[in-house]
Amino acid sequence: MSIRFPGSPIARNGGPALLLLCGLVLAPGAQAAPERWVVATDLWGNAEYRTLVIDDRDGNFEGTLGGEPVTARRTGRRLTVTTPDGRYDGTIRGDRITGTADLPDINLASVRARHGFTARRIPPRPAGGARVVDFTPTSWSNAFDPHRAPVLTLWPGDTLRTETLDSGGMDSHGQTRALFGNPQIGPFFIAGAEPGDTLVIRIGRLRLNRDFADSRDEIVGRAMTPGLAVRAAGTGTRVRWRLDRDTGLASPEGGTGALADYAIPVRPMLGGLAVAPGGATPVSTGDSGRFGGNMDFNEVIAGNTVLLPVQQPGALLYLGDGHARQGDGETSQWGLETSLDVELTVDLVKADPGGGGAIQMPLVESPGEIMALGQAGSLDEAVRLATDGLVRWMGRDYGLTLAQSAQLLGVAARYSIVTLAGRNAGIAARIDKSALPRKPGDPAPGPARR
Known about the structure:
Blueprint: E1 2-3, E2 35-43, E3 46-57, E4 60-65, E5 68-75, E6 78-82, E7 87-93, E8 96-104, E9 112-121, E10 132-135, E11 143-144, E12 152-154, E13 159-163, E14 184-190, E15 198-208, E16 212-216, H1 226-231, E17 238-244, E18 249-252, E19 264-265, E20 269-275, E21 283-284, E22 288-289, E23 292-293, E24 305-309, E25 317-323, E26 340-349, E27 363-365, E28 369-376, H2 379-398, H3 402-412, E29 414-419, E30 425-432
Parallel strand pairs: 1-10, 10-13, 12-14
Antiparallel strand pairs: 2-3, 2-9, 3-4, 4-5, 5-6, 6-7, 7-8, 8-9, 11-21, 13-26, 14-25, 15-24, 15-26, 16-17, 17-18, 18-19, 20-23, 20-25, 22-23, 24-27, 27-28, 28-30, 29-30
């Protein structure tokens, strides 16, 4: 199926954006699957999003709002949802609900506060199981924004095929389509994703779709000594590279001297991959954090899997910033910036009811390694975060205690610099699967054959 969706406007000036199309509330006495909605409550100009689930049981509406039990009642077009500490009164108008919530003041529990809210329904899963969806973007975002209306709803198991711009906003035809600064496609609403879940993104294919890329002839400040900085005067120039899609080689145009006949194999990667961050504040697409973001990790390649911690209903997946190739650290400020054709499959790992399984930062798994990303304002803090992520992974999936994990870190871990080019530095703590013990529950290896 081929789908084209224009980007929906973002609600501003205190008006929360509607996230999903809302359908009609079930008529009294009707029997159907539970209805799922996203409710946006305007808390003093800041939108808070929670999922509402309503189940009609012979005309008695029950369900949850943000995981808390609720009851519901419908009279004509009026809908009332009662929570343990408040009430939502709304009116159904076509494909949306608008109304007012009566809730405790966030600072004074004995004081009531009234807030506007809007809601719209998560569409039911299409028949036929997992889909392959071709999506042609017509709008792009320069923020990882929890308030931006989704361009498309995907379900766990669905495969998305689309194309990115480069970091400057240029498409596969060399036309500028968006403002520079890593414009992203999305967000894609992943039905069923809730805060605390893990979004699993399996990258099936990243393919060059044009014959050039741009880089720079400079070294980022984090990697320069004072002596190098003095010598660097006059660098910082854009360098055009030729991409030979038949041979899979990249070479600088007009290369001279030692680079006159230089060529290197391409290794396409996504620089940007993120879920919407928690809270109400959008984050620039030049930034990164536990939500992912402008990670610029050269292991976000075809064949690998990226895991991101869900922080908003629907996860709200963004992607962009294609690179034909990039060295560790993105030390030239840019990789080989280009547009890409992308194919990826989304899935979900639901949160442990006890809260024990949630991941805290981006994780990447290749056929041979597990990798945890630390992204922070200093390399020291990034190392700490990456180490914490890898230790948590080894404990959760391989049953290792902290002391046991420390032993394996000491003999088998590797650390690579992910990026030095952004506000945050990135470090990956990584270990070969061959150096890890058997997972609990996995069968023991059989006897060696002679």
